[in-house]
Design goal:
This protein is α/β, with parallel strands linked by helices. The chain has helices at about 10-15, 30-35, 65-70, 85-95, 115-130, 175-180, 200-210; strands at about 5, 20, 40, 45-50, 60-65, 80, 100-105, 130-135, 135-140, 145-150, 155-160, 160-165, 170, 185-190. Bound molecules: flavin-adenine dinucleotide. Flavin-adenine dinucleotide binds next to helix 3, helix 4 and helix 7.
Amino acid sequence: MGKSQSFCNKPRTLETSGVSVTPNQEADADLIKRFGPDVLVVAAGSEVQRPDIPGIDLSHVKLATEALMNQKTIKEPILIADGGLVGCEVAVYFGSEGKKVTLVEMLSEVAFDLDAVSRLELLEMLKENNISILKETHVVDIKKEQLKVRRNGAERSIDAKTFIIAMSMRPRREIFGEFAHLAPASIAVGDCATPGKIGDAIHDGANKTLNLSTVSQW
Ligand SMILES: Cc1cc2nc3c(=O)[nH]c(=O)nc-3n(C[C@H](O)[C@H](O)[C@H](O)COP(=O)(O)OP(=O)(O)OC[C@H]3O[C@@H](n4cnc5c(N)ncnc54)[C@H](O)[C@@H]3O)c2cc1C
């Protein structure tokens, strides 16, 4: 590879690697064309999907990432769906600030997508932070200060001034699609390829870049 440059906001982890980092710089087609990379690695991450529930576009409905970035606007009581890693972590975060938080999960367990040791730790944190957990429960309707949930066919209403969506993550493949043709070879890595955990993203990036000689267009 001739030139190499990374457009990300984690310079400290890269400062000893010889990679040039440009923080607060959005990569767009013009910038990539000007740079003219031999290989383009797109690591644009993923985003939470908005489920198709009546009321989903109301202003008190926030994606998990939006809620964390705009914490001052988050009013309690908070209802979070669902109870995978992201939902549990967001619940612990707001619970640790003393906010009243309820976690709704349609399966019979929460934190199901973690290894056994991390799961036990997270379950303990949910308990310590007084997070109410409703299992085998679906959100069926969102109103301004109330949500309707269903469990075993029975519906009930729950007060919630903020509804946080932490459901499945969607890879930001459209960014890869927009840029892929701008280099002779392009790869999507990490959550942008397949949403997972930090370790998965690091391994995916390492494995794919170590095998660059076999890459044409991914
Ligand atoms: C709330 C939450 C909690 C989580 N907790 C855990 C956890 O405890 N443990 C765990 O293992 N995983 C956790 N995850 C998952 C983990 O964060 C991801 O798997 C991991 O961050 C993916 O890394 P990535 O580098 O592929 O993408 P990201 O970390 O999402 O990074 C993508 C980056 O690309 C940047 N970007 C996007 N488009 C452009 C562009 N055009 N130009 C320049 N930059 C751009 C974005 O700003 C972002 O910084 C959590 C996820 C969330 C949302």
